[in-house]
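Lab notebook, page 48
Experiment: co-folding of the full assembly
Goal: obtain a model of how the components sit together before planning crosslinking
Operator: M.T.
Materials (sequences as entered):
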Amino acid sequence: MDRIFSGIQPTGDLHIGNWLGAVRNWVTLQDQFASIFCIVDLHAVTLPYEVSSLAARTRDMAIGLLAAGIDPERAILFVQSAVPEHAELEWLFTTVAPLGELERMTQFKDKTEKLESVPAGLLCYPILQAADILLYRANKVPVGEDQVQHLELTREIARRWNTAYAPEAAYFPEPQALLTPASRIKGLDGKAKMSKSLGNTIGLLESPEAIWEKLRPAATDPARVTRKDPGTPELCNIYALHQYFSPPETVSEVADKCRTAGWGCLDCKRRLADAMIGTLAPIRARATELKRAPDAVDAALAQGAERARSIARETLHEAKRRMGFFGAV
Ligand code: ATP
Ligand code: MG
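Observation: model returned without errors.
Model output:
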């Protein structure tokens, strides 16, 4: 059976972009593939972060994923730092990872733009990501579009390592991205990608009131200055979101009322808020239950880490054996 691996950083609240672009897909795929999902806390410390809340954010992320439908009986769900083999394989991969390509990664360039001093961890981020995936020899990776470039680099690292240490066997697979039609959800600013770190998100577990408060000022087609100005739905992020939350009749109605200025943007947003609140209600209810049982969540993560580690240990040993390390040969 093909194996899938994917990760999410505990850098903030799980949002609808993460859900539409990746997590909802994980929930479906866990029935079709041997699935491994990881809360990548080692990645989350590559930018300045709040030390005192990292552990709580990690558990909250687990709660969000479990509430969204990740089933720890079917999939392995664990926290990256609980499996030290990730960092060790990363080190081995630094010896074959091409520096020039690391420096050319869009995410690296974006994240370092405002930094005075660039930590090497940010540069090595995609090497750790390659280790995350290849430690489980996963051949498919369900992610959003922003990760496609990193995955290309993962394939490059696998190829280079295989050429050096496993020329006849291609020990590491060259994993492919699995994208959804919602692979790049825009933030409420209507411009940048929705990102935990940009504060332009709607959280998956947000209250109905908070969803409305966030949607109300959200960007729409700039041509609709007053209620009477007609708009172009295809240019409006609110219309884009309707397509993921509203039934087809509503989507057509929204397009029509926008083009003809039949209603104002606020009416359109109210419809979206209602559809979103309805869609997310069961996830929110499950999260409320899980928050009451943090010990059960921690136990599920511990069991996930055990299962992940038994695979990780084997792969790392084989990688070290092929690299000729004392104790592994
Ligand atoms: P950060 O701002 O800390 O990088 P993020 O919101 O980008 O957070 P990640 O943890 O980096 O979230 O990514 C988790 C998964 O969600 C990845 O598969 C990523 O491709 C996907 N993803 C992130 N943002 C979006 C988005 N706006 N649309 C679709 N998928 C997304
Ligand atoms: Mg990100």
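Interpretation: The radius of gyration is 21 Å.
Next step: discuss with group before ordering constructs.
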